Amino acid sequence: MHTNTSFASPVTPSTLISCGQGKHWVKKHFRRAYVRADGTPVSATTVSAHCSSNPPGYEHWSPLIRDGRPPDWPNQTEVSTPWREEENERLLNALSSIPKEMWPALLQGFFRMKKSQFFSNPSSTDPAGSISVYDSFFDKNRNQTRILVHEFAHLLYANDLEMSRSYRTASAWFDDSPDQNQPHFVPLRKNFVEPDGDTSPSEDFANNFEYYVFDRKKLESLTPGIALWFKNQYHDKLDFQQKQQRKNK
Q: How confident is the model at residue 2 (pLDDT cuts 50, 70, 90)?
């Protein structure tokens, strides 16, 4: 089913309110307690309506926060739900620390869905470029930036065929299908940073990409060859989390 989508209205200031350049209007809302990506706890409170300074990347990301169902979303039983004001602000805040080098080129938008059909996922991605975030994405102890980096990795894998072939070779995935038009990849290794890594090269890549950014020591200890592949492939482009941690010390 193809459903028309639109920009989510909460991130668009009222036509009667002008915050000026570099700021956007935030409606009064209740903000639940949560923990920022850098570990800073944020308490629950009622946020007054105000003009807020745009976080880094705001002009790029805000038009991509959309209402309705993603176009041609494969999980037909999943239900869309309106974006809440606090959810818009938290998503924009989580995106603000991700450097441009990691922004997906083919992103159709972020869509708000209630619950994943098959898993307890906080989010999921259609290779065509839609990212759905579910209720659990906004749980108190979730690292939204880390979740988004994982989903961006799925899009990167799906849209860079040369890179994905190189990754499968480096990470020991073997195509055991006799039909080259319908590949069937099986892993030839046993170590994975997450249990679902053996389900597909895409999931394995997204998990390892995430861990290379946020928990590199674990990736290096389990699969040092894959960690080296990421280092050679991306050099220092994925080091933003390490730089932030050193800055906060």
A: very low
